[in-house]
Design goal:
The chain has one helix and 41 strands. It is mainly β. It starts with a helix and ends with a strand.
């Protein structure tokens, strides 16, 4: 037998005696986003072996090592090839549930432009905690991303950054896999309205003493440090820090003395300052109007007040006595007893006094004579009726507005009846409007009536407040109506929905233009 034939038979037999190519694969979990691994060990076949990844989240070419590192989670197929190019493959799953970290921020703005009390709290989710003593969860940072690599401006293991002023900051967290997520926020202090408070009298609290309150009206930054000092002695009467965030009024005490001068110094949380002065002294005031019963008599009201105010105030303790003595007749004495602190008004009827006379008036409570003054009981002047042209209330058709008033009347009611006027009016557009009389306008809550659409011409009107009636004659001149010269502007919108803006040369007091919506092609 030839030698080459024996050699072929030998190789053929040996090849068939070699073990079949096989592959054993194991995986290591991907704890982070891509740090899993696969270890492949081939057997059988003919060495040396080559390994590669032929499918999965990523592919790898042939390599002599069966170890594949830095793999993402997922199912891979590993192939081995031996020296005679036989191949075998096996599938395996690299497990892992890592999710990249996310970041949310909670912002507390600085209270003032110059303040450093802003803060930002970072809340991280997902990722893997670092788990060291120095950084139990994440690394929390303020960074500058405009540099390469980034610049870490501040790093800490707590999630809240404090003592921050206005400005733009980039916050970042880093997890145990060294993955980061950043968010840029801007801290801006709220706009602070300048201080402009009020010191208000409340009521008498004891003999010679009263209460006041401080009203910030929501201005300035809370809290407000308020100090009240007696001017003459320099004694501090009140000094407290007041939380004004509710915007309400706050009592400054009940031991202020009538007739004494006080100064109030206010310092808010942003450093704004304000100074107020006050001094209150009891007084007695008189107010008069026509009687509501349509008798034509004058109703007089005498009440407790302050020298700095003509309003009714609680400047006495009850019970209190109001005494009126006629300067011309000492026997003409009127006495009124106040028992309700919420009603310190004496209703003095015209029939009970000398009309036009002057009376010495005193107000006494259980402490002393609170106030004394002289009041003259002058009757309300005769009722007057007025018609006033109001060109600023005019209309674009050439008509104008009117105001009708009842002066010195006795009711809160007004009615005007237009008895006569122009029979018709032709607008510049050629529209003819005819008028029939009487025309009636009414106001059920006040004695003034405001009405519109009066063309130029001569009128007669009857005005009444329900008690008294008067007639007035008036004329509306063409010059007292709106000038109708105007320009037009078109404001284009989507589709055919455009706006026509009419700009009259004579502008109504309520605005500078008229809007007319139209659909134009």
């Amino acid at each position: 037998m030839p030698k080459f034939l024996l050699k072929f038979v030998f190789l053929f037999c040996c090849a068939n005696l070699t073990a079949q190519l096989d592959l054993d694969v194991t995986q290591s979990e991907s704890v982070c986003s891509s740090d899993g691994g696969i270890t492949a060990l081939a057997s059988g076949g003919t060495e040396p072996y080559q390994y590669r990844l032929i499918s999965g989240p990523e592919l790898r070419g042939f390599q002599s090592s069966g170890m594949f590192l830095a793999l993402q989670p997922g199912t891979y197929r590993v192939e081995v090839r031996d020296a005679i190019f036989d191949t075998f493959s096996e599938s395996i799953e690299v497990i892992g549930n890592y999710v990249l970290p996310t970041l949310t921020t909670i912002i507390t703005q600085p209270s003032c432009t110059s303040s450093t009390n802003g803060q930002v709290s970072l809340s991280g989710n997902n990722g893997n905690h670092i788990g060291t003593t120095a950084f139990p969860t994440y690394k929390y940072r303020i960074v500058d991303l405009s540099t390469t690599p980034q610049t870490v401006l501040q790093e800490q293991n707590s999630h809240t950054f404090t003592n921050l002023s206005e400005g733009t900051y980039t916050f970042q967290i880093e997890d145990g896999c060294q993955n980061t997520v950043s968010e840029t926020v801007t801290l801006t202090a709220p706009s602070i309205v300048s201080l402009n408070s009020a010191i208000s009298y409340i009521e008498k609290t004891a003999c010679g003493a009263y209460e006041v309150e401080y009203s910030p009206f929501g201005r300035g930054a809370s809290p407000h440090n308020v100090t009240v000092t007696e001017v003459a002695t320099g004694s501090i009467i009140f000094s407290e820090s007041i939380d004004t965030s509710s915007g309400l009024s706050y009592s400054l005490g009940t031991n202020f003395v009538y007739g004494v001068d006080y100064t109030v110094d206010v310092l808010d949380a942003c450093g704004q300052t304000e100074n107020k002065n006050f001094a209150f002294t009891p007084d007695i005031d008189l107010w008069s109007q026509k009687s509501f019963d349509c008798s034509g008599e004058t109703a007089f009201f005498v009440y407790a007040s302050l020298t700095s105010s003509s309003l009714e105030v609680k400047s006495i303790l009850v019970p209190a006595t109001l005494t009126l003595i006629n300067q011309n007749d000492a026997s003409d004495v009127l006495t009124y007893i106040f028992t309700d602190i919420d009603n310190l008004v004496a209703d003095v009827h015209e029939a009970d006094i000398e009309v036009g006379g002057t009376y010495d008036v005193t107000l006494d409570d259980g402490c002393s004579t609170v106030a004394s003054t002289s009041l003259t009981f002058t009757p309300v002047p005769a009722t007057e009726f007025e018609a006033v042209v109001r060109p600023e209330r005019g209309c674009m058709d050439g008509t104008t507005g009117m105001a009708f008033h009842v002066r010195n009347g006795g009711t809160n009611y007004g009615q005007v009846t237009i008895l006569s006027g122009p029979a018709s009016f032709t607008s510049e557009a050629g529209v003819v409007t005819t008028y029939s009389y009487p025309r009636v306008f009414e106001n059920t809550s006040a004695s003034s009536i405001f009405s519109e659409a009066f063309p130029p011409g001569n009128y007669e009107a009857e005005i009444t407040d329900g008690c008294e009636t008067g007639n007035v004659i008036f004329e509306i001149l063409p010059s007292e109506t709106v000038s109708h010269d105007f320009t037009l502007d078109i404001q284009q919108s989507c589709g055919n929905n455009n706006t026509l803006i009419i700009n009259p040369n004579t502008i109504k007091a309520s605005g500078s233009s008229f809007l007319y919506k139209c659909e134009c092609n």
